[in-house]
Amino acid sequence: DWNSENVIEQQVTAIRAQVGTGRVICGLSGGVDSAVAAALVHKAVGDQLTCVFVDHGLLRQDEREQVEQDYVASTGVRLVTVDASDVFLSALAGVTDPEEKRKIIGREFIRTFERAQADLVAEAAADGDPIRFLVQGTLYPDVVESGGGTGTANIKSHHNVGGLPEDLNFELVEPLRTLFKDEVRAVGRELGLPEVIVSRQPFPGPGLGIRIIGEVTRERLELLRKADAIARHELTAAGLDGEIWQCPVVLLADVRSVGVQGDGRTYGHPIVLRPVSSEDAMTADWTRLPYDVLARISNRITNEVEGVNRVVLDVTSKPPATIEWE
Ligand code: XMP
């Protein structure tokens, strides 16, 4: 019968059997799957594992620190962070089309990861100790989905760390292949991972890049990051995290409206709140958040985030609207 201690024990044994004394690499996204997969592998083979975290500059406030500090402190994994925000921002300059943004971010992500990987492989080979394994946080539903071949309509091109190309030089290590999401969380807790990572709500691979409607710039990212941090903070403080699946915060960067703030006229951007309730993200309903919580978020964002003078609520289910705006 299922419990997370048994799973950990079984996986540690299986990973040791597969990997032996070989070296292993793992890409971390900041999300729960890659974090738990890496922690299991680290428990099994310690410093034979090196993790790589690509900061694409499209992360939310504190996410990089959660990985670099909290996650590393709780697991002891060896981590290489690649700061690639300049590369991503220049590649995204002038781009407003959602699919084009997704393609660029996916492409740059793979390039950046492969470069980091090549550096590590070269370093290890120079030590006479080649890296032969790549960890993937593949879950049971992913296995079923890709094997089932039901040909579901592809509405948006998805990007995530799990979708890295299977480099032919690597053998895959997939310690979560038999698990569902809630089981992965239970294993993560048992392994002592930070709660911010273990209970993190879904966040798309392309990050804030697809939550800025219009061109992605450093200034717009900073603005959205502040608004998003306020919304998340207030939702958590109100004890509502368990009630919502996720709450994208979106910047309508190409829209401006007139406002009055202090004793002057403003001409600023709207921020959209998109709280949704869902079981599996295939369908969703907009969450009926308490008015006082909405009021607090709206007041704080308009007072604290310069350039924003209006907060609007998305009251559309999925379908017809998707959860993300792009
Ligand atoms: P949509 O917008 O299609 O989103 O209703 C459904 C769920 O998927 C997440 N999402 C992504 N996750 N890479 C990801 O890992 C992506 O490219 C991506 N796009 C959307 C979205 O946040 C929601 O949970």
Structure, described:
This protein is α/β, with parallel strands linked by helices and 326 residues long. The protein has helices spanning 4-19, 32-45, 63-75, 85-92, 98-126, 140-148, 181-190, 195-198, 218-237, 291-304, and strands at 23-28, 49-55, 78-83, 131-135, 171-173, 212-213, 249-252, 257-261, 264-273, 276-277, 285-286, 308-313. The chain folds into 2 domains: 4-198, HUPs (Rossmann fold, 3-Layer(aba) Sandwich), CATH 3.40.50; 211-313, GMP Synthetase, Chain A, domain 3. It has a 5-stranded parallel β-sheet with strand order 3-2-1-4-5, with helices on both faces. Strands 6, 7, 8, 9 and 12 form a 5-stranded mixed β-sheet that branches. A two-stranded antiparallel sheet has the order 10-11. α1 packs across α2. It starts with a helix and ends in a 13-residue tail after the last strand. 37% of the residues are buried. Xanthosine-5'-monophosphate binds next to loops.
Helix-strand blueprint:
Layout: H1 4-19, E1 23-28, H2 32-45, E2 49-55, H3 63-75, E3 78-83, H4 85-92, H5 98-126, E4 131-135, H6 140-148, E5 171-173, H7 181-190, H8 195-198, E6 212-213, H9 218-237, E7 249-252, E8 257-261, E9 264-273, E10 276-277, E11 285-286, H10 291-304, E12 308-313
Parallel strand pairs: 1-2, 1-4, 2-3, 4-5, 6-7, 9-12
Antiparallel strand pairs: 7-9, 8-9, 10-11
Helix pairs in contact: 1-2, 1-7, 2-7, 4-5, 9-10
The structure holds xanthosine-5'-monophosphate (XMP).
CATH T-level fold name of the largest domain? Rossmann fold
Label the structural class: alpha/beta
Q: Can you name the CATH architecture of the largest domain? A: 3-Layer(aba) Sandwich
The largest pleated sheet is described as:
5 strands, parallel
Number of domains: 2
Bound molecules: xanthosine-5'-monophosphate
Give the helix level as a range of percent. 40-55%
**Alpha-carbon Rg, integer:** 21 Å
Write down how many β-strands occur, each being a DSSP E stretch of 2 or more residues. 12
Query: SSE string, helix = H, strand = E?
Result: HEHEHEHHEHEHHEHEEEEEHE
Query: What is the CATH class name of the largest domain?
Result: Alpha Beta
Low-confidence stretches: 148-152
Our measurement of the CA-to-CA distance between the termini, rounded to an integer number of angstroms, reads 42 Å
User: Judging from the principal axes of the Cα atoms, what is the shape?
Assistant: globular
